Amino acid sequence: MADAPQRIEQLIDLMARLPGLGPRSARRAVLLMLKKRGAVMAPLAQVMAEVALTARDCLRCGNIGDADLCAICRDERRATGEVCVVENVADLWAMERGGAFKGRYHVLGGTLSALDAVGPAELRIPLLVERVADEGISEVILALNATVDGQTTAHYIAEVLEGAGVAITSLAQGVPVGGELDYLDDGTIGAALRARRRF
Amino acid sequence: MADAPQRIEQLIDLMARLPGLGPRSARRAVLLMLKKRGAVMAPLAQVMAEVALTARDCLRCGNIGDADLCAICRDERRATGEVCVVENVADLWAMERGGAFKGRYHVLGGTLSALDAVGPAELRIPLLVERVADEGISEVILALNATVDGQTTAHYIAEVLEGAGVAITSLAQGVPVGGELDYLDDGTIGAALRARRRF
Ligand SMILES: [Zn+2]
Ligand SMILES: [Zn+2]
């Protein structure tokens, strides 16, 4: 690519680091943007810059928002008694697409993992314990992925919250073994939520 | 995605329009960017904005550059007697990666296509005829894709340039039937260039 101006090469390199894009597809994406500089590239750059500038992690639940508290934590119509614990923001978005859950969330930021040396302190588990004590939460719904690490994490949280006077449930029917929430259709997530069982 | 701030939804929508990215992979790309706002998202937005602002189509050859003439047209070490005709900038980049061609280019901006109603006037063919007359070009190398439309276009250009006193050659050995330049390895492109034949 000796002929592509340096900035364009840089742009291709940066795009190629995004998940799902390799060097070839990054090049194709950049070529399309170059063809549609006004209609695609300029608006994309602007929205991206705005989001980079304004996006913030919600101090309470870990969701992405644009203020100290995210839109869900600010929304007073959301039930405050139920907190749905998810691994990451992608899973929160998947739950929201399902539209079945009317409570609030707690984003762990990952799962416990011996292999990756992720302990409870690396996740937002201590913060969850605080929230249960402070916010009058009556049910914690564990919506963790049906993977080994996800289930290890679920068991750990159930243990930590034992005696806190809160019901602990988990998504059940409909989540395939080894499946990840973000790949499920909305109906499946809704069914799993309705059929949740005590953990 | 009711919970994602509106700008983030907008960003996902824009990303999903890029080739190779659907709604799901756009979401994953945006989530990664959101995680790495300083290291990935902000620099990407900035480089993209700069390119959107500065990129220009070369007035002579149709390549993308940052001035009236692209870096290749400005480069006095490039042979001026040979012009390589390609369909689009992606193919020009593929030729340059091969590194075998030392002349200059002419980017058509597509191929003739009855189906898509693309005639010679929609491409940069009249400009090619002008260049052959004005720039002392001795050889026009047709490096069009080995597709039906690509070859139709090659034949049309050969016809139009008949009697212009210019040798017309085409890439030969190594370009698989139905193959597209942008998918070939560099060695194949080099071999096809060296073995080019009269058209
Ligand atoms: Zn929140
Ligand atoms: Zn040029």
TrEMBL record, chains A, B:
A zinc finger (C4-type) spans 58-73. InterPro entries: DNA_Rcmb_RecR, Rcmb_RecR, Rcmb_RecR_Znf, TOPRIM_dom, TOPRIM_RecR. PROSITE patterns: TOPRIM (PS50880). CDD domains: TOPRIM_recR (cd01025). Coiled coil: none annotated. Gene3D superfamilies: 3.40.1360.10, RecR Domain 1 (1.10.8.420). One of its GO terms (biological process) is DNA recombination. One of its GO terms (molecular function) is zinc ion binding. NCBIfam families: recR. This is Recombination protein RecR. It comes from Fertoeibacter niger.
